[in-house]
Amino acid sequence: MKRKCDRCDNEATVHETTIKDAQQVERHLCENCAREEGIVIQSHAPINELITKFVLSKVGGGTPEKRAGACPECGMTFADFRQQGLLGCPACYDAFDTQLAPLIERAHEGGSHHSGKTPRRAGTGAGERQQRLMSLRKQLSDAIAAEEYEKAANLRDQLASIDRPAPTLKAQRRVSGASGGNGGGSAPGGSGGASGPREEKA
Amino acid sequence: MSTRGRNGVACEWLRGEGRDSDVVMSSRVRLARNFAGYPFLSRARREQRREILVVAQRDIMEGSLAPQMMWIDLNELPALERSVLVERHLISKQHAKGEEPRAVAISSPDERLSIMVNEEDHLRLQVIRSGLAVSEAFAQIDQADDRIESQSDYAFSAKYGYLTACPTNVGTGIRVSVMLHLPGLKISGEIEKVRRAAQGMSLAVRGFYGEGSEAVGDLFQVSNQTTLGKSERELLTVFETNIIPKVIEYERVARRSLLEKRRVILEDRAHRALGLLRSARLLKSDEAMELLSCVRLGIMTGVIEKVDPAKVNELLLTTQPAHLQKLLHRDLDQAERRIERATLVRNTLA
């Protein structure tokens, strides 16, 4: 049912709620009376503008990292995921858990929690280590892109202390050289054991 | 990569040996894994992909897996060789394409274990074995997985298990698939029964080359579709004690029934196929597969004697376009391939 303006017979399209002396006061006015009462009214926005605003508030806009609702690690939004069908990084599972959980449950025919093999390292702070590794690698990548080599070297040291040394450019060259030929390459040279420490040269 | 053996075949899984190999061609298990601390590949920059490649190569080629593994940088491999790997089921079609940094490590010489690096996930491990050997394949892949994990952290969460780029693989990240030769059920018109039984257990039935492919040569793959909520062991049990023995039994009953009630039809079909294969001067790829399937059925039911089943299995692979060109050391257009395919088949089955 349409509500009438408190002051005239026109339809009330402006609704104001104020709290005065701990009392809730509601006013329902037509646009003309509202203007006379000094209420600032924004003109009606076109519907597509409203939709755009709504979508942006849900899926974000602007730079990837700053978009609302984006994964804090990789900047992917849920809308990106819907389009590609692939997530951006492990942290996306946390970032979109609310939306993903029902999808995952449907895809796995009711399965909602993992059952089965667990990495031996899990449960020994691996989760936190994963987060820290991800964050440090991202910073490292940014530092290299910005040619901040001192910062990059520092980050690389931190990475090395958490897990293993990040591959150096030198190491990359050695590896790609070893895999040359027509694909018949065997193990690259180097004396590293399964998990022995390696020399780190930034 | 080098190929070995007669006609350059080294695929252990095509030998047609092992348990229930009259019906089961091969058993395959794959695991999807991602290294912690890196984005998935859809968000990875080229240098990050390269870094993942370096980490994977170190974990695979400098660790305890190294002695049996051969590393192949796919950007350095000619297109024909990549197609050969696809036909051998060692890499996916998707992995064969593109220019991004990616690789595959293959156990040599048996080619049972292969690890695709930078496909949809950072790592896709696969073990493929002849006959029904799902548990054996899992044991081998589990060990390889442990060895990699002893060196690097995997992306893992307590709730969702192994985290994968596509949420449909999350959890165990496992896909078990068994390739079955079901000509008896095809002839008796009962294939749909298998499809329905499999679907009722969250399993999919697909063709020879997996997703979206047709079941050429009466070869079907049965594989799981869900990976979350059910442990690896539970899934293996479904395959080994439930669905696969049931399908094997259906197929054997259908073959027995053909032998008893429609023997002449079976004999005619098998010998006609053998005759065609031994005489044809032009053979299309799918036609060769269909005929080889009939001959294989004839051998397995005893209506064809004195033809080595291993040769028939081998031809299923060597008559494929890339293998044919590899064998002849030159590029062949479609018309030339038909001629050379027919020649190869005639010579092999003479």
Question: Could you please describe the fold and organization of this structure?
Answer:
The complex is a heterodimer of chains A (202) and B (350). By secondary structure, chain A is mostly helical. Chain A is 42% helix and 7% strand. In chain A, strand 1 and strand 2 form a beta hairpin. In chain B, strands 2-3-4-5-1-8-10-9 form an 8-stranded antiparallel beta sheet. Chain B has a two-stranded antiparallel ribbon with strand order 6-7. Chain B is an alpha+beta fold and 350 residues long. Chain B has 12 helices and 10 strands. The longest helix of chain B has 30 residues. In chain B, helix 8 crosses helix 12. The N terminus of chain B is likely disordered. At the A-B interface, helix 4, helix 5, helix 6 and helix 8 of A face helix 1, strand 2, helix 4, strand 6 and strand 7 of B.
Topology (elements, then pairings):
The complex is a heterodimer of chains A (202) and B (350).
Chain A: E1 14-20, E2 23-29, H1 31-36, H2 47-59, H3 78-84, H4 92-95, H5 97-107, H6 126-145, H7 149-162, H8 169-178
Antiparallel strand pairs in A: 1-2
Chain B: E1 24-33, H1 46-61, E2 69-73, H2 79-87, H3 93-96, E3 103-107, E4 113-117, E5 123-130, H4 134-149, E6 156-157, E7 161-162, E8 174-181, H5 183-187, H6 191-199, E9 203-206, E10 219-224, H7 232-261, H8 263-279, H9 285-301, H10 309-318, H11 321-328, H12 334-349
Antiparallel strand pairs in B: 1-5, 1-8, 2-3, 3-4, 4-5, 6-7, 8-10, 9-10
Helix pairs in contact in B: 2-11, 7-8, 8-9, 8-12, 9-10
Mean pLDDT of chain B: 91
What general outline of chain A do the C-alpha atoms trace? Answer: elongated
Give the tally of structural domains of chain B: 2
User: What's the main sheet of chain A like?
Assistant: 2 strands, antiparallel
Q: For the residues shown, what is the average pLDDT of chain A?
A: 69
SSE class of chain B: alpha+beta
**CATH level-two architecture of the largest domain in chain B:** 2-Layer Sandwich
Radius of gyration of chain B: 21 Å
Q: Which two chains touch over the largest interface?
A: A-B, 67 and 76 residues
CATH uppermost class of the largest domain in chain B: Alpha Beta
End-to-end distance of chain B: 30 Å
Instruction: Give the overall form of chain B.
Output: globular
Strand portion of chain A: 5-15%
Based on the structure, what is the oligomeric state of the protein chains?
A: heterodimer
The termini of chain A sit apart by 73 Å
Total number of helical segments of chain B? 12
Please provide the ordered H/E string of secondary-structure elements of chain B.
Answer: EHEHHEEEHEEEHHEEHHHHHH
Tell me the major beta sheet of chain B.
8 strands, antiparallel
